[in-house]
Amino acid sequence: MFRLIVQSLSIALVCLSLSGISPAYADIYRYVDSQGIVHFTDTPNHAYWSLYRKQQGQPGFTGKPTFSSLIREYANRYRLDEALIKAVIKVESDYRPYIVSSKGAQGLMQLIPETARSLNVKDPFDPADNIRGGSLYLRLMLDRFNGNLELALAAYNAGPTTVQRYGGVPPFDETVNYIRRVKYHLNRYRQSGDAVL
Predict the structure, then answer these.
(1) Beta-strand (E) ranges in 14-168?
(2) Which residue out of 92, 114, 150, 174 is catalytically annotated?
(3) pTM metric for this prediction
(4) Is 100 found in the same domain as 14?
(5) Which residues, at least 6 apart from 129, have a Cβ–Cβ distance to it below 8 Å?
(6) Planar angle of CA 137, 196, 106, nearest 5 degrees
(7) DSSP label at 196?
(8) In this structure, is residue 85 part of a structural domain?
(9) What sign does the dihedral 34-40-44-45 (CA atoms) show?
(10) Do 69 and 197 contact (CB within 8 A), yes or no?
(11) Which residue range(s) make up the domain with 15?
(12) Are residues 104 and 16 in the same domain?
């Protein structure tokens, strides 16, 4: 059945291209329900959807920006390494813009509602707004801890007052593992760029 759907979609795309009509380009999300049925959409409406295929940039394409272009924009604006933003997103949400954690953190960079409000994030599920807010927060944490990446990441995970209270990285397994995982992905992104998004 799934193969039939894919073949039908392929035939439809070929027919569109032959007729001179170009298909729209958008991120595709995938969800497997409790009965094992695979669903695809370009407009996910709950946290169970996961990114299946990223939007491909097309010449003259003027639709919504890709994650990569948003990351590049805010990395430049806030003087951050693009690979750092990518690594934080990878660890925080695995590039799922509609995810909500058990603690209420929302979106790609998992912003707590109070933090999102302080950063003027209006819609934490909008990738542009979320990446802007999360990138700004990373910049603020790096500035607060004099460019010390480990302390900035600890603050992003556990809060800056917790880092100050402990005088360094708090002795929490979650925070220690968080720093380790972000640094691992940071190195991967520095070496291979968007290939591992």
Answers:
(1) 28-32, 38-41, 50-53
(2) 92
(3) 0.68
(4) no
(5) 121, 122, 123
(6) 35
(7) G
(8) yes
(9) negative
(10) no
(11) 2-53
(12) no
Q: Confidence band (pLDDT; 50, 70, 90) for 35?
A: confident
Rounded to the nearest 10 degrees, how much is the dihedral formed by the CA atoms of 68, 113, 105, 73?
10
Q: Residues 119-137: pLDDT tens digits?
A: 999 999 999 999 999 999 9
Q: Where are the alpha helices (DSSP H) in 52-172?
A: 67-77, 82-93, 113-118, 127-144, 149-158, 160-166
Q: Are residues 105 and 42 in the same domain?
A: no
Pairwise CA distance, residues 39 & 34, whole Å: 11
Tokens of 85: 């933003």
Q: Total structural domains in the chain?
A: 2
* Catalytic status, residue 114: no
* The residue type at 42: D
DSSP 194: G
* Separation of alpha carbons 38 and 36, rounded Å: 6
Q: pLDDT of 172-185, one tens digit each? A: 999 999 999 999 99
Length, in residues, of the chain: 197
Tokens at residue 36, please? 């094992």
